[in-house]
Amino acid sequence: MAGLDRARTLTEKNAVRYAVLGSGSSANAYVFSCRGRSVIVDNGFSVREALARMDRAGISPDSVDGLFLTHTHGDHMKGAGALCRRLKIPMFTASGLTLPDSVGKLPGLYTMQPGKEHSFSWCSCLPFSTFHDVDRPVAYSFSIQGERFTVLTDTGELSDEMFHLVSTSRVLFLEANYDPEMLSSGPYPASLKRRIASKWGHLSNQQAVDFLSEISENRRKPDRVFMCHLSHNNNTPEKVRESIASSRAADMDCRVLDRGELCTGDFVPGLKMTISL
Length: 277
Hints:
Layout: H1 2-14, E1 16-22, E2 29-34, E3 37-41, H2 47-56, E4 64-68, H3 74-77, H4 80-87, E5 91-94, E6 109-112, E7 118-119, E8 124-129, E9 138-144, E10 147-152, H5 160-167, E11 171-175, H6 180-185, H7 190-197, H8 205-216, E12 224-228, H9 237-245, E13 254-256, E14 263-268, E15 273-276
Parallel strand pairs: 3-4, 4-5, 5-6, 10-11, 11-12, 12-13
Antiparallel strand pairs: 1-2, 1-14, 2-3, 7-8, 8-9, 9-10, 14-15
């Protein structure tokens, strides 16, 4: 019983709650919370849908301190400005990014230099550059309770910086956007197929799995990986699972999230464990 009581106490006081409100081709949003405070990464949902999903994930709107925008594609940005206004929170973006007029007036706007850690009262955030066909795209790695949580999507290539951040992360959210055969034989025009498969597009299942396979040989690696941002037309969860199962990453704790799937979990630093629902 003493062990259970200790686990309960650590969960209540120190647990980092993470939530994927949804990911995929249509809308993306992630939340990280600890000690009654939260941050949101992107919001491609309507305000009503985002708040409903936050409620299902056990995230209070009053806890949110800010929204961190990765880039200006609609599936990440469509509802970002409106949510900031509803929650009266600032938006954080990469330095030099010009937001489109559709974002609207914001309660506050702050910029961050990629590659530089930015400290807040209860967490720190490290934006890092990605390879995507849009102005100044970034991904984010958060340090909370001394542990790192990283969201890495919307990149056509992987860098040494990404490898280092992922290797030192406890929980990773990694894009597995498309299956090359499905993309090649699918309905998209040739120009769009080339864009998706290019250095400035998205990660294929094989790219993501090869990256994890390399990470898996490290002494330090994520306790849990969520494969996300699956294309509606060019991928399936089964394809991603097959790629993982036939790779050196098969022994890693990987969960594949379907398009639009809501997922929550808690990481307990003192116990070095994750509990996901």
